[in-house]
Specification:
This protein is mainly beta and 199 residues long. The protein has helices spanning 45-53, 61-70; strands at 2-11, 19-31, 34-37, 57-58, 76-81, 102-103, 111-130, 135-143, 150-155, 163-184, 191-198. It is built from 2 helices and 11 strands, in the order βββαβαβββββββ.
């Protein structure tokens, strides 16, 4: 079994001030013979900066499951995307059906899809069910006017056929939620079966 351990990183001189950044990782293994240190996953510069800005996703499983179990699903009015492939329209990713999907133009980065909420809501996170044509790296951004965007999560380890639960660092008010794909998992496009947003 593993015990979750929090580590604080101090960033100072280069940023002009000292800031505590809490990064959570499963670093310590606890066994019958005692505790042993597991080599931690190396943190890239972008990940650390995302934590500094407060823009990242929480990937701790129990917290993610709690978001879905206790969260209230927000009504999505419609969706629009940077491109579509054939009849796989953007609205398919929020139509309540697990058998229809949005599919973007193939072989081209970046691509995005925007989910338009019925009204402005304070939201805490979302669930994305990716198809085989998934995003390896993508950001989640929110807006109230579709002009000024704030990044609330940054994913760098996406996988094909993944159901990803993303809990924001803190609740945020939004009318528009954008999934901005930066890098694909394969040679196809970006494809989402269904998205749910929670408050």
């Amino acid at each position: 079994m593993y015990k979750r351990q929090d580590y604080g990183f101090i960033m100072g001189q280069g940023l002009g001030a000292t800031h505590n950044i809490q990064l959570t990782a499963k670093f310590w293994g606890i066994g019958k013979m005692g505790a042993g240190v597991i080599t931690p996953k190396k943190l890239d510069f972008d990940t650390v900066i995302d934590f500094f800005k407060g823009d990242t996703s929480v990937k701790v499983r129990d917290e993610a499951e709690e978001l879905v179990a206790r969260g209230i699903e927000v009504r999505i009015e419609t969706a629009e995307a940077s491109s579509v492939n054939g009849s796989d329209e953007a609205e398919n990713a929020c139509d309540g059906s697990e058998s229809t999907r949005w599919d973007s133009e193939h072989g081209k980065d970046p691509q995005w899809i925007i989910f338009i909420l019925e009204k402005g809501e304070i939201i805490r996170g979302m669930k994305i069910r990716w198809e085989t044509a998934a995003a390896k790296r993508y950001d989640i951004l929110v807006s109230l006017d579709k002009k000024n965007w704030k990044k609330v999560a940054s994913i760098n380890d996406g996988e094909s056929n993944q159901e990803r639960i993303i809990k924001f660092v803190k609740p945020v008010k939004a009318k528009y939620v954008k999934v901005f794909g930066k890098e694909r998992c394969g040679d196809w496009g970006y494809s989402i079966w269904e998205v749910k947003i929670y408050k």
